[in-house]
Amino acid sequence: MTATVSAPSAISISLTPTNVSCNSANGGNNSNGSISLSPTGGTGSYTYSWAPGGSTSANLTGKAPGTYTVTVTDANGCTKSSSATINAPNAISVTTTVTNVSCNSTNNGSINASATGGTGTLSYAWTPSGSGATKTGVSAGTYSVTVTDANSCTKTVAATVTQNVGPSSTISGSNSVLGGLTYTYSGPSGMSSYSWSITGGNHVCDAHCHHNSAHSCGSGCDHNGHACTSACHHHSSHSCSNQHYGDHHCSSKCHHGAGHYCNPNCDHYGVSCNSSCHHHSNHHCGHTHCGSAAISGSTTGSSVNISTPCCAGVYTVTLTTTNTSGCSSTSAMAVTVTPSSQITLYSNIYITGTGNHPGITKSELASDIKVFNRGNSNGGKRDHDQSHYATIWNSTTGIVSNAVVSSPSLVTIGGGPAYQYVITVPANGAYLIVGKSVVSSSAYSGGTVTIYNVTKAGNHDSDDDDDDDEDEINPCTSTIVKFHSVLKDAKGKCVEGNTQLQHGSLMVMVSPATLEFDDTSALMPIVYESVEGDWSVSVTADPPYGFYAVPSDALSTSLTDSVLSAVQFEVVDTGSEWTNTKLTHTIQHKGAQRIANSSPKMVNLRTNKPSVVNINPNPATDIINVVFPNFEGSATLYIYNVTGQKVAEKPIHMTGGEIVTMDITSLVPGVYMVTAENQAGKATGRMIKKEK
């Protein structure tokens, strides 16, 4: 008998994996993978064992990516193993490309997002709002984009948009300036281009004329900018009628013509047109144009120079800059101009020789200049006290902080060199100008001496030793000429020069502010300088009691245009009271005569002043008895009249305390100086001769 033994069919396993929805890098569900098991063959029912994890289910679910192995066992204990892998989709990866903002505070930036991986179609969402792969119109800041695939897996990335350094147009410079000067204004550095401009200005009619919107004189004026009053009837053309000139009377300064017109040099009110007023063809005062500020030179540099008119005004300075990115910025600055006037000062040293008509040379005098308000600094009065001037100089009280003194420039004026200073000051003021000069002087140890000079500008008053006929300084007035001078006499002594400026065709007079006595006599040079025109001058010295001048009579000189001339007195101390002398200058110019005065102050630099003699009787008629206390030795007794002429003398010998008798019968009634002199010193006294 034959028996057949058969084997069961082999166990066969079919595994079908299902991948997870999302990569672990993209959030979402990355643990939903599964494997489906389909076994065949073997005997009877099956059991299952999965590794890793130990699951005994036929199908594997809820699994993360990985490789899983299943062992299938049938009823006979036969087994079969097989493996399958659960995968994850490629991770969503996002890269961004940023275009930064080109200019400050603009929104021309952009961000482009490019994503790969994930499953299916990818979508883009921006925070703040926006969709699509590219976000445009972006200003500087940080933005995020979220990319989502078909399985709702996401990837979020951030991108930052920056902005280039923006252009700057900040203007550096003063916004309050003094008119008539040039100021520098600067923009920021590093810009690729600059563009400057300035606007503003004044168009001013005279006091009788009103502006209309066209910046011309309005209907209250004739066509020449001259105002018609209520007493003057207008024609349709708004011109003043010849027959009805109303109260447009000419003053004493202005002569009527046959047709009752004012003289061409005057307006209808008899007021002369000043330098700031332009004449029309009929010579009426017309419009006054203050002018506009203007940029000097190029307007495309990082800085500009702006020239301002002297009159008041508000100007707008504008700067536009562009940076290397082509971005622009514009800023503006309002500049307020304060009205100003200018004073031109010439600084000179005059060196005189010997004799009554000494030779004279002039050199430039390099001096420091300061400007003070006239109301301060002892009221601006000249007291001829150098220590007082030094105190003013070293003080800040009353100093005009916005006065501008130019650097000195060397010029030729009046036949010699001088340093010229242009001083710009606020208009309508009164000023004290102080100059400090260090000059050589053989009369002082060390060879140098500091001299302070003062001069005034504006508000003429009785205390003004400078005969300038000054008035208040008005805006845009013509230059006021001043002189700052030092005198050096033939002995090498330097003193402050008291300068007077004669108006008309100009002449300068310079006399010592002080006479400094370190001996019994001092030189008093007076310098005359013709700046313009020819002059003749006669000066008389009138010394006070205790002095006489040599020569005793007037000294005269004549001047030709741009020629220097000088006269010189020797002033002798015969028993002084140390006070001011007086000089009287008689000036002839073009047939006209004027008188000017100056008053140098006597300063005693001697160790010992003269002794005083006793005279008895005094007043006397015939005989005087003179007592010389503490006076010994051989000497000569002199009697001088008030003009310094010697009228009597007598040799004497003193042993101390004697009485000297002298006959004065021959003298005419008057005042006399009695002096005894020898090598030991001098003794003086005053005597009056009276009528019998």
Primary descriptors:
single chain, 692 residues, mainly beta, Immunoglobulin-like, 5 domains, eleven-stranded mixed sheet, five-stranded mixed sheet, 1 helix, 49 strands, 1% helix
Describe this structure in words.
There is one protein chain. This protein is mostly beta strands and 692 residues long. The chain folds into 5 domains: 12-86, Immunoglobulin-like; 93-161, Immunoglobulin-like (Sandwich); 176-201 and 292-338, Immunoglobulin-like; 341-604, Immunoglobulins (Immunoglobulin-like), CATH 2.60.40; 611-689, Immunoglobulins (Immunoglobulin-like), CATH 2.60.40. The chain is 1% helix and 48% strand. It is built from 1 helix and 49 strands. Strands 22, 23, 25, 26, 27, 30, 31, 32, 34, 36 and 38 form an 11-stranded mixed β-sheet that branches. Strands 42-49-48-45-46 form a 5-stranded mixed β-sheet, with no helix packed on it. A hairpin with a 5-residue loop joins strand 30 and strand 31 (494-502). The longest helix is centred in the middle third of the chain and has 9 residues, at 386-394. The chain is rod-shaped. The termini are far apart.
CATH architecture title of the largest domain: Sandwich
Q: Between the first and last Cα atoms, what is the distance in angstroms? A: 212 Å
Number of domains: 5
Tally of DSSP β-strands: 49
Q: Into which percentage range does the β-strand content fall?
A: over 45%
Share in helix: under 10%
Structural class category: mainly beta
- Return the average pLDDT rounded to an integer: 81
CATH domain fold name of the largest domain? Immunoglobulin-like
CATH homology superfamily name of the largest domain? Immunoglobulins
Overall body shape:
rod-shaped
Alpha carbon gyration radius: 53 Å
Question: Which ranges are low-confidence, i.e. pLDDT below 50, for 5 or more consecutive residues?
Answer: 203-288, 461-470
Largest sheet: 11 strands, mixed
The first-level CATH class name of the largest domain: Mainly Beta
